[in-house]
Amino acid sequence: MKKVKVGLVQMSCTKDKQENLDKAITKVREAAAKGAQIVCLQELFTSLYFCDVEDYDNFDLAEAIPGPSTDALQVVAKELGVVIIASLFEKRAEGLYHNTTAVLDADGAYLGKYRKMHIPDDPAYYEKFYFTPGDLGYKVFQTKFAKIGVLICWDQWYPEASRITALMGADIMFYPTAIGWATDQDEETNQDQYNAWQTIQRSHAVANGVPVVSVNRVGFEQDGAMKFWGGSFATNAQGRLLYLASHDQEETEVVELDLTQSDFFRKHWPFLRDRRIDSYQPITKRYLDGD
Asked: Does the keyword Signal apply (predicted)?
């Protein structure tokens, strides 16, 4: 039976980029000590979530990929023999930036990157000010332990993105993410938002027959106006929760995924086999109103 142990690192961040990187490396070591083979860090883990404001100074946080952060993490990946999924603010060229995740194999090799395709522009999430939409398409990466698909935060709401990634052969779907509650919201709204976020991602596991691992940040930011809700989780290939993190604590957890379950669930619930691909052409239209 093919089983893989994945590490989820849910942590809070500060204004100090090096401090955050060092902390993440410490957490990767903790996950590896618990047996993790693949470790996923949260979205933009080297900084506070800076997209709450449109501030040109924040572009100084960006770096090349490969670059300083991936260089440091490659050393750790090779030393520990673990795969690292690292979400970073990429400076591609002068004036051209992406929200990007790099994948480092267990021998320290840089396998490539995925650039976030869906970019939000909501109050306190002004990502279109900073990030150009990804142009690499959807990606899977053949690591030592599994072929992994990586999407990023806002991508999580789109079944099309998860479907295409699954069709490319992903054994596991990873979502580094950064989402939280405005602290002036009522508790019912908070729970509705979190439940929607978790439900849509668990549905990707069900529809595609692959495990889903979602890693979110935690802690108060934006001068206390935003509470990042943590709640990181891992599911099996039928969407059953295997691990659920708290809403307010840093956590480093390792979860064992049985990758042979994908074949079992796809045979018994044959959603992929029964797809009517001949009828899906309209999905490429913005809206089906004749225009």
From this structure: no
DSSP-derived pairing of the beta strands 226-229 and 180-182 = antiparallel
d(CA 174, CA 139): 11
At 237, list the tokens.
Answer: 């290939």
User: What does the mean pLDDT of the chain come to?
Assistant: 97
pLDDT digits (tens, 9 = 90+) for 81-95: 999 999 999 999 999
Give catalytic residues, as residue numbers: 43, 116, 153
Is the preceding peptide bond at 133 cis, omega within 30 degrees of 0?
Answer: no
Mean pLDDT of 235-252: 98
pLDDT tier at 53, thresholds 50, 70, 90: very high
| CA 207 vs CA 163, 170, 212: distances in Å | 8, 13, 11
- Residue 1's pLDDT is 54
pLDDT tens sequence across 99-141:
999 999 999 999 999 999 999 999 999 999 999 999 999 999 9
Least Cα distance to 265 among 201, 207, 198 occurs for 207
Phi-psi region of 239 (alpha: psi -120 to 50; beta: other; left: phi over 0): left
In 3-state terms, the chain is what percent helix, strand and coil (to 5)? 30, 30, 40
CA distances from 39 to 10, 43, 213, 271 (A): 11, 13, 10, 29
Three-state secondary structure of 143-188: CCCCEEEECCHHHHHCHHHHHHHHHCCCCEEEEEECCEEECCCCHH
